[in-house]
Amino acid sequence: xxxxxxxxxxxxxxxxxxxxxxxxxxxxxxxxxxxxxxxxxxxxxxxxxxxxxxxxxxxxxxxxxxxxxxxxxxxxxxxxxxxxxxxxxxxxxxxxxxxxxxxxxxxxxxxxxxxxxxxxxxxxxxxxxxxxxxxxxxxxxxxxxxxxxxxxxxxxxxxxxxxxxxxxxxxxxxxxxxxxxxxxxxxxxxxxxxxxxxx
Length: 199
Fold this sequence. Notes:
There is one protein chain. The chain is α+β, with helices and mostly antiparallel strands. The chain folds into 2 domains: 1-130 and 141-145, no CATH class; 147-199, no CATH class. The protein is 39% helix and 14% strand. The protein has 6 helices and 5 strands, in the order αββαβββαααα. The protein has helices spanning 2-12, 34-47, 97-117, 153-163, 167-177, 185-194, and strands at residues 22-23, 30-31, 50-57, 67-74, 79-86. The strands form 2 sheets. The chain has a 3-stranded antiparallel sheet with strand order 3-4-5. It has a two-stranded antiparallel sheet with strand order 1-2. The protein starts with a helix and ends in a 5-residue tail after the last helix. The model is unreliable at 125-144 (pLDDT under 50).
């Protein structure tokens, strides 16, 4: 497994900054969506020959329940590591079984991606995307504080993809900054809130 872990170590040093692009109404803090984490890591993973695959299956050791299978594969060496997490949806008011299953799966996808790839960033914990019926009390943690650094490739791609369907906001960005290449993450966070992309 030496080649796989060496490639992962090198990729981790080149991840883009993870953008906290979603808001939790219960805690008042922002958290990173699955899409945001993928955009921040995919360029570095691709560069170092790593592929992360997540799939729902019924493994041989337990055919009675669905599991999220997570595979990190190193294409040059053929080495891989895999793990299984049981999907156990909570019943929620006004949500059918399929929506509960989807919420539980999305939650597991986010956290297995984070742990498998070794992501670490502020503003994230197990309350942010978990399907909860009542708000947690006495919850304290730091909000995300932008660094003032230029945007990474994953952040720019994410923003440009979003603005493809929002020509008015795209015009504002072009008039104000010229392009996303000229933005810092401070500009980025303020722009997302101002344009209503992050609420």
